[in-house]
Structures are given as structure tokens and as C-alpha cells.
Design a protein that fits this description.
By secondary structure, the protein is mainly α. The chain contains eleven helices and no strands. The N terminus is likely disordered.
Length: about 210
């Protein structure tokens, strides 16, 4: 009898995780279909993705997908606020909040605070540095000195590791909107960062610094 029970228990140990994996796999495939449909039909993306907001393991992916396809700023703000409440250490969400605050005309202090939280929660995440740097330059005149130094570090580090390739046109456009004095200030801080070089400066769209 014990042998039969042992075999049954062994079978359950093997089968139950397998069933769970199959169910989860089916959910992921179904979610992928919903996300594809939402991306190709932005008007009803919220309705297509909302059922996935409460599916464990897929909730953040669903909300991120909804944010990318929604155009209503108020809804985006509500969604991002909920996301950062559930995951306050998500630097990517803080970046998104800073960008949305800037785009929606929210108080500049709110955008600066969100940008600061992005740096505090993930100061060394290379893939976040280009977006944070662009936002930082856009908000430059309102940033405290410490945050300006942080943006200079993001600029140099992202450039050295080749993370600015797709962001250069946007970075260039933001820099052109700044005064010559601000551009010179940014370049001066960049050159003070360890690892900065003439190549990094020109890669970021600044004129080559004088030879030392």
C-alpha cells in the first residue's frame, strides 16, 4: 500500500508543476495575443488589456502595454501612479512619470522629483540612462547641482557603452533648444566625469573640446 501511495505522490509531484506550467504558458500566449491586438487597435486597447491587470505574473506587463497604447494623459497618470505604488523601486516607472509630467504640463517640481527617484532607485542601469539624461537636459534649469552632476554621469556612461545610438536625434533636438550658456555648462560637467573624452563629447553632439 505504501508503494502505491509513494508512486501516486511521485506522479503528483511531476504532474502538478507540469499542469501549472501548461496553464501559465497558455496564459502568456493569450496575453501576447491581447497585447498584439491592443497595439494594432489603440482605441480599445484598455478594454483588451484590462482583464490581464489582475493576472499574477502578467499584471505589470499588461499595464505597461496599456500605457504604450493609450493616449489619454489622465488615464496614463492614474496607471503610472498605481504602478509606482505597487512597485516603488521601479526606476523605469519613475522615468515614465517624469516624462509624462513634462509632457502634460504638470508642475516642474513633480517631474524633477520623479527624475530624482529614477536615479535613486537605479543609478547604474545602463538601459535607463539615455531616457533619464534626455529628461534631465530638458529640465536642466530646474535641476539641483547634485542632479545635474548625475545627468552628466548618465550622459558619459551611456555614450561610452554605446547606449545613445537610437536617442541621438532626440538628444540633439533637446540640446538645440537650450541656450549656449546652458550647453557650455553641460559640456563642462561632462568633461569632469571620469572616463569622459573628446570622443564622448562629440558623440553626444557637442563640439570637440580644445586640446589640453
Amino acid at each position: 500500500m505504501w508503494t502505491r501511495f509513494s508512486r501516486l505522490l511521485s506522479a503528483c509531484i511531476v504532474i502538478v508543476p507540469s499542469v501549472f506550467a501548461i496553464v501559465l504558458g497558455a496564459q502568456i500566449v493569450a496575453f501576447a495575443g491581447a497585447r498584439w491586438a491592443a497595439e494594432h487597435s489603440p482605441a480599445d486597447s484598455g478594454a483588451r488589456l484590462e482583464p490581464w491587470f489582475s493576472v499574477r505574473g502578467l499584471e505589470f506587463a499588461a499595464r505597461n502595454a496599456a500605457i504604450k497604447t493609450q493616449s489619454n494623459l489622465n488615464l496614463l497618470q492614474d496607471q503610472l501612479a498605481e504602478m509606482v505604488t505597487q512597485s516603488p523601486l521601479s526606476a523605469a516607472t519613475w522615468n515614465a512619470i517624469a516624462g509624462l509630467d513634462l509632457a502634460s504640463g504638470a508642475p516642474v517640481d513633480a517631474a524633477v522629483q520623479a527624475l530624482t527617484m529614477s536615479a535613486v532607485t537605479a543609478p547604474n542601469e545602463l538601459h535607463l540612462m539615455p531616457a533619464r539624461a534626455k529628461l534631465g537636459i530638458a529640465l536642466w534649469e530646474k535641476l539641483p547641482a547634485e542632479r545635474r552632476n548625475g545627468i552628466a554621469i548618465d550622459l558619459v556612461t551611456a555614450s561610452r557603452w554605446g547606449y545613445f545610438n537610437e536617442d541621438k536625434p532626440v538628444l540633439s533636438a533637446i540640446l538645440k533648444g537650450k541656450s549656449e550658456a546652458v550647453r557650455e555648462q553641460i559640456m563642462t560637467l561632462i568633461l569632469q566625469v571620469e572616463g569622459a573624452s573628446a570622443a564622448v563629447v562629440t558623440d553626444l553632439g557637442f563640439p570637440a573640446p580644445p586640446a589640453r
